[in-house]
Amino acid sequence: MESSNLSVFRAFQVIGKLVFGCWILFFSSCADAQEPNSNSSLYYPPTESSIWEETNFQTLGWDGTALAELLSWLPTQDTRAFIILKDGKIVVEEYWGNKLTGLGPMDQNSFWYWASAGKTLTASLIGLAEDEKLLSLKDRTQEYLGKGWTSMPNSEERDIRIRHHLSMTTGLDDQVAYPEKTNQENLVFKAEAGERWAYHNAPYTLLDQVITNASGMSYQTFFKERLGNKIGMKGMWQKTGDNNVFYSDARSMARFGLLLLANGKWDNEQIGDRDFFEDLHQSSQDLNPSYGYLTWLNGKNSYMVPQSQQVLPGSLVPQAPADMYQAMGKNGQFVMVVPSQNLVIVRMGGAPGDLPVPFLLIRQIWDRLGPVLD
Q1: For the range 310-315, what are the long-range contacts, defined as Cβ-Cβ under 8 Å and sequence gap of 24 or more?
Q2: In whole angstroms, what is the distance from residue 62 CA to residue 49 CA?
């Protein structure tokens, strides 16, 4: 009798383990299904080759008529380069007009300026420096620029930390006569660090020097060795007035977008800390939830724009997917990343108007791009 009971007990044990295992597999499958972006499904172009696999829009079920309308409209807005990647592969790659130098037509090897889209690239380099323990986002800026890098009293200056530069919350006055200059006279107290959001170029530009002093390398060398060479990204930083501007070809911009989509991973190598790259496209503060680490975020309930303290209701680009985030620069330099659809969209060129961040243009693009993808 005892032997019979023992057999029954063991049978229930086996059944229990099988059921438990099935539940584990079930929940694991659900978790995988909820992951919006699977790095294993991404294609990465070779780093030392112009080879880049392509995908036909028809196989994706995209609307060809809407795509044709988009591509005929883009050059009317002085677009010079436009690329769409799906799962890392090129679906659209078009060039119009002349090179930046004016010498010959724009093509895949032509360099163009990133303007403020380079801010997201700088944020990524800060993340790489932190990953190497060269600095921490919690560090005081004084540790790398020295005391007196602003005109503020030390009691106020010492409160500014690297994370405040990334989130545009240094508290420095963006309404000074020359907001792009980084000399002491133009770095003036306006609010306590972390208490005011303002789109301000000077504190951002100083991050170049932070990286240089923390790493002992030139900013260009740090970029090339820690990021550019690893993902096959061409480009150079060049002083333009008081700004340090990045120049590259459109494909290099797309490579960077693909790195962002993969949260810092390239092929089989994790280039930078995944947590940092995920934080980069999360709200970095509560004042402007549509701003991450020097990166614009879509799908939030409010946003602020440069040169204004007004909080505007709604999403930054209502026409676009809510999970989209983007590097955006003057005249419409865009790197748009949509994790839920494994999309990277790059746009280079000019733009009507003189806004530091052309919100209207990106909305107009999505007015036309949305129907392509639907």
Answers
A1: 315/290
A2: 29
Nearest to 176 by CA among 304, 287, 357, 307: 307
- Taking the C-alpha atoms of residue 159 and residue 172, their distance in angstroms, rounded to an integer, is 12
Domain 39-138+198-373 has CATH 3.40.710.10: yes
Q: What is the pLDDT of residues 247-271, one digit of tens each?
A: 999 999 999 999 999 999 999 999 9
190 vs 217: CA distance, rounded Å: 32
Question: Nearest to residue 261, comparing CAs of 274, 247, 248, 246?
Answer: 274
| Whether residue 13 has pLDDT greater than 50 | no
Contact assessment for residue 331 and residue 351, using Cβ atoms and an 8 Å cutoff = yes
Q: Tell me: pLDDT of 16 over 50.
A: no
Nearest of 191, 187, 226 to residue 204 by alpha carbon: 187
**Predicted confidence band at 37 (pLDDT cuts at 50, 70, 90)?**
low
Q: What does each C-alpha distance from 27 to 23, 33, 175 come to in angstroms?
A: 6, 10, 53
- Please name the amino acid found at residue 129: A
- The angle, 0 to 180 degrees and rounded to 10, between the axes of the packed helices 64-73 and 359-373 is 160
| Prediction pTM value | 0.89
Could you state, in order of their start, the residue ranges of all structural domains in the chain? 39-138+198-373
Following DSSP, what letter does each residue of 61-74 receive, concatenated? T--HHHHHHHHHHG
Distance CA 324, CA 193 (A): 28
